[in-house]
Design a protein that fits this description.
Chains A, B: Keywords: DNA-binding, Transcription, Transcription regulation. 2 copies of one chain form a homodimer. The first copy, chain A, is 74% helix and 0% strand. Chain A is an all-alpha fold and 199 residues long. Chain A binds a DNA duplex (30 and 30 nucleotides) through helix 3.
Chain lengths: 199, 199
Amino acid sequence: MGILERKIRQKENMRTNILAVALQLVKEEGWQSLSIRKIADAIEYSVPVIYDHFENKEAILFELSMDGFRLLDRLLEKDKRKYAEPEERLRAHAETYWNFAFKNPEYYQLMYGLGMPCSSPGKAKPEFNSFRDHIGEAIEGIVKEKKNSEEETCFKIHALWSVLHGLISIVMMRCSDIDDSQMNKKVMDESVDAFIKNL
Amino acid sequence: MGILERKIRQKENMRTNILAVALQLVKEEGWQSLSIRKIADAIEYSVPVIYDHFENKEAILFELSMDGFRLLDRLLEKDKRKYAEPEERLRAHAETYWNFAFKNPEYYQLMYGLGMPCSSPGKAKPEFNSFRDHIGEAIEGIVKEKKNSEEETCFKIHALWSVLHGLISIVMMRCSDIDDSQMNKKVMDESVDAFIKNL
DNA sequence: AAGATTTACCTAACGATGTTAGCAAAGGTA
DNA sequence: TACCTTTGCTAACATCGTTAGGTAAATCTT
């Protein structure tokens, strides 16, 4: 009997609908004004049904952050297929990371806890290191003939990730008075250049 | 009559007391659990008196973040007096920034909106650029014989700030699985080295 | 088809939050 | 003493996340 399957399908639909609606609300009004009641309103159900599908609000945010990591991962995989040469690939990864952040600021903020009650970080997720793994691979490709130790490579990975994340955070949080996005992009490009030169 | 002055003094005392108590609570339980009622409880007054001294909760957070910037600024000024040689001074500034962040994580999180409802950033504060100004001066000192344009120097400032802030953010938010603080410190030192070498 | 049972869903509430209106008491002024 | 300003409080409002408990519909059992 397909009746059970239909129910499962409906349940899944509800779940994805909740996530979709939550993301939509966030895009419109930001994380700070997202509430369970608004989600319930948007899906046209009462509040408690949301708790049939998610343990609590944090679980919803967690799931959305996972979506963010998955999306980023897909983009990085595309780079991998497109660019075989390690240096070229590394530059592409950096650019992809940058573009991802500013095309999906909601995701980026959630993924790295920028300007919101921490929620997602803290729990170790494999997806968390997706970017690290990708640039790590590219860096190893560039550096493999040189006699760098594994530890040194690990340092390099962290260093590059840090510049990118730091730059993005500062711009996204408006910590700097430099608001010219072209200029900020240039700072990133030069930082990546300097980084590669220093490998 | 000193009676008016006493009242002013009392009012100021109350104000600073509120801030001190708020900071204390944050150090004990983190930003997320700070509430007006807890502050009122700690200062042994009822809730509305707090609103006689601060417009709202955000104003309290804002003032505390200013304290953070002022404290950081004082430390950087100390470096300036201690180290005349630009490169040495720049290294000291980086180290000071790093140490400040991990000795006062509450301040750092508030100042740059890490893991909390954004609150402070967004409003342009002169104190915000204190660190930028300090490392800017040192970098100009190092680079002044070379024919770098002002724009290039500005880029360099942003690049260095970004590595530091990125590294600190990643560690503080536990985005990385590398939790060894000595190791993280090494990554910073090497990044600063590479940065200076690349000036 | 009728009864039993599980499921789906809602109303209403609890406790905590930031914020404010309005009142009472204390203190200074005339 | 009468008045007024300051100072502080109680109590409430709206919103939040979360949950207990009930109802009616959908499903399963006989």
